[in-house]
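Ex. 9. Protein: 2-phytyl-1,4-beta-naphthoquinone methyltransferase, chloroplastic.
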Amino acid sequence: MASSLHFPVLCLHGGCLNRDRRTRGATRCSSERQALFGRIAPVYDNLNDLLSLGQHRIWKRMAVSWSGAKMGDCVLDLCCGSGDLAFLLSEIVGPHGRVTGLDFSKEQLSVASSRQRSRAKACYKNIEWVEGNALELPFPGSYFDAITIGYGLRNVVDKPKAMREMCRVVKRGCRICVLDFNKSTQPSTTSFQFSRLMPMLWAVKCLLLVKCCYTRNG
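Predicted structure tokens for 2-phytyl-1,4-beta-naphthoquinone methyltransferase, chloroplastic:
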């Protein structure tokens, strides 16, 4: 389960050089993002509070509800970060269900594991933390009853491939629930985002909520 990205480069005719450059660029971009999330791991939850004005906790509960996860299910929280969604999912699936939290940042997973050890509910013991790549999920096809990804899809270097991987490992008829921020199209909200929040966050983009719930039908 490699934590960096590798794409095979097929050298045919004159296109190899461009593909090789794109591959190196994607790998470098992914490594930079991985390093960034490693650095911010200790303050990641506080950053989410600031970015969402505290609303992300409500949105995460909504996302878990939309996922359709139920008691005894096997579920995946992709780009799990410090584990908020994974903990909520474990409460839904119960001690006889299974939750996998996958992230490319071992520092984030360390925070999540520490939080797990400090919590007493029996259901939290059903969570397994996996360091892995959202573009090459280390699971067989049609494996999970539900998948969530919270504030993670925007940080993936190849979003279509990440979605294809999620579709591959989710069972037919089950759901992939995506929760993320997005730039507002409302002038008043955009003005607030950039005139009030941006100075506090330096160069970190302040984005608003996008809710997407996908059901695999085939």
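Check your answer against this statement. The chain is about 45% helix and 20% strand.
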